[in-house]
Structures are given as C-alpha cells and as structure tokens.
Amino acid sequence: MKSVLRRVYAAQLSTALGDGAVLTTATLFFAVIRGFGEGVVGPALGGGALLGLVLSVPLGRLADRIGLARSAAGFSVVAAIAMVLFAVTPSPAVYVAGALCWGVAQANLLPLRQALAASQVPLEGRVRLRAVLHTLLNIGMGLGAAWGAVAVALDLRAVFIGTFIVNAGIYLATGAVYAFLHSSRGLVTLPGAESAAWRDRRLLGLTALAAMLQLSVPILGVLVPIWIVTRSAAPEWLPAAALMMNMLVVVAVQLRWATWVDSASRARASALIAAVAAVLSCITLGLAPALGGVGASLAALGGVLLITVTEVTAGAASWFRLTQLSPIGRQGEFQAVFATSTTLARIIGPAVLLPVVVAIGLPAWVALGLVIAGAGVALAGALRRSVG
Length: 388
Fold this sequence. Notes:
The protein is mainly alpha-helical.
C-alpha cells in the first residue's frame, strides 16, 4: 500500500512541477509573444477540458477493461504529445491540437491518480489524502512557476520551447511509473455510465458547487497572467511569482486546515470564509489596471493571496461534504464523479471567463467573485442541512 502511494505522490509532484512551468509560460507565450491572442488561447484550453469531460465515460469504460494504472500511462503519453506540439507549433491550429490533447489527458489523469491513491486509504483518511495530493500539486505548481518566472524574464524562445520539451519528458517518466503499477493487485477501477453515482443528485449538486469554487484554478493559471500583463503596469514576471506565493501558502496551511475541518460546523465556516475571500480577491484583481506599477503589483499579490484563501477553505469544505455523501465501498465511484468539478472549472475559466473578463474588466471580476461566493454560501447551506 505504501509503495503504491509513494509512487502516486511522486507522479503527482513531478507532473505538477512541469505543469506549473507550462501554465506560467504557455499562456503568455502563445497569447502575447506568439500573438495568437486570448481569443484563441482561452477557447483552446477550455475546449480541451470540454473534450476530456465528454470523453470521460467511454474512456472510463476503457479504464475498467485495461486497469487504472495502464490507463494513466496512456494518458501520460497523450500529454507528452501535447507538449511536443506546443514546442513545434508553427500555427494556431497546431497549438489548438496540442491544447485539446493536453485537456483530455489532464481531465482523465486527475481522477485516475485520486482513485489509485484512494484505493490504498481507509474511509477516515480520505480528506487528509486529498489534502496531501492538493499540497503536492501546489508544491509542484509553485516550483514550476518559479522557473516560469525566470523563463518570462529571459524572454527567449528557446527557453519556452525547452520548458515544453522537459515537461514532455516528465510525462513520459510518470507514464513509466504508472505502467509499473499495473502489476499491483487490488487497484480499483473507474465507474462508467452505468454507475449509480452519476444519478446521485446530492453528489451532482456538490460537484457543480465545487466546480464554481474551483474557478480559483483558472483564475490563477489563466486569467491572472493575461490580465496583469496586458491590462496593468505590473511586471511580466509577477504572475509567476504570485503563483509561487500561492504554493507557499497552500503548503503551509492546507493540511492543517483540512485536519481542523473535522465537523460539519467547521466545514460550514470554511465554506463561508471561502465566499468572502473570493469576492475580495476578484475586486482587488479587477482594480489592478487602475493603479500604477507598484499599486498594480500589490493588488495582484493581494488578489492572489485572497484567492488562495478561497482555494484552501473551499477545498476542505468540499472534501468534507464528499465524505458525508460517499457510501462505504463506493468511494472510487464518488471520487471519480466529484473529480469532474476540476474539469468543469477548466472549461469555464479559459473558454468563458478569460474573454469576458479581458473585454469587460472590473464589472466582470465582481460578477465572478459573486458567483464563487454564491457557491460557497450554497455549500454552507448544504452542510447545515446535513446536520439539521
């Protein structure tokens, strides 16, 4: 059991490291430096996530037949292909093809990793497990963002391309790790369309709320880089530095906070904190263009810090609610359905929010904050009813 967990943790960390570097470089590289624009980059990233969601059921059935670990190895190869397409892309069309491959791979690798890890942990350890996986994700993303800041500062085409090639190598290496796990016994499978979990209204409601709360992910990785670089006087390397700050905060508090959220009342308080922080964050980020260089930088850092609070507190509240809803013996099913919340956030963020926020500005930021806050309040209400 510990051997499987260690390998899944290592894959989570290393993959996040490469993704953090790519997220902080690719968005700016293709939208600004290559000149494809947010009108291409946003829909391409969102379209990839949407394609991954649409294919989740047939690909889930395939995973049932060939096994979780072997499926994860296959999707790692697809992600590596995406990185190669990013590196050699001569046109927006090739970039879009890479984004679609990357979106499909990410949408399926996330639930596969979570299911592999969850199969090794008893019910009472699932919230902590998610906190560990989320912490590793943020450590990797933050360290990758540190390199992204260097790459943006150097502003050399070869550095950007090298970043994509290195991440392709990371995906291939983690794919080899997953392939080796195929020989392990007792690993669960993902549910297909026949799973009753897809018909559980409370679970689907939680997944929808979690998707809105997880809009913090595209805010950090997609909206903030484009918004700060193209609309404010802050330096180009600041979004990458802000993402690294996000990592440090999450690493410092996520596990402790998830451990503290051990009751419905505390989970409810956590959801309400997320709601308040989301509104304050979006207003702060929306005001950045109206400020000078120093003011815009402070607004960007403050906004990212507040959205990090949303990320930590909303995550813990959502995970607690998931443990309430998941029947013993069906954790894998419920985990897989809930994991689609991240994919939904990755669809909405780049494809819908990016062009709208860039075009409208502060009012769109305020509306976004209110949407996330509404999800937090609704989750708090569900947690109250669960003990009412």
